[in-house]
């Protein structure tokens, strides 16, 4: 053994620690056969649901930013709002956009953050009745979306097992 080979071996250069290649991070997506498409039906529906909600949540986040930046003071002026309501708008301005990105990517953290946002919006009127106006429709819509999300997740999990 030469001196350079000995020094490389002692430094760990060229030593392989993993016996096999790692799994791909994202499964390959391409043209599906009819059998594959049928097998992945609920997963595909779940991904499209998540992407549709992502688009809606992007608009919600941008609307909160328009309130924060005072684009149209006739709609809402954050400077004249009660403190808890202004803090809520600031939180959702950031959280809704981050959740939307995670939903669009169909990442698990996106679904979790979206569930946190939707559940918080649904429970906000219960926690502070002055926090939101027109709460009936928003609570019902968020609750319905959460139920649909869980149902699609269950169907997609059954499909994969």
Task: Give an account of the 3D structure.
It is a single chain. The protein is mostly helical. The protein has one domain (38-160). It is built from 6 helices and no strands. Helix 3 (41-69) runs antiparallel to helix 6 (135-160) and helix 4 runs antiparallel to helix 5. The longest helix is centred in the middle third of the chain and has 29 residues, at 41-69. The termini are far apart. The mean pLDDT is 80.
Q: What is the global morphology?
A: elongated
Rounded average pLDDT: 80
CA radius of gyration is 24 Å
Low-confidence stretches: none
In short:
With 161 residues, this protein is mainly alpha-helical.
Defining key terms:
161 residues, mainly alpha, 6 helices
How is this fold's topology laid out?
Elements: H1 3-11, H2 34-39, H3 41-69, H4 83-104, H5 108-127, H6 135-160
Helix pairs in contact: 3-4, 3-6, 4-5, 5-6
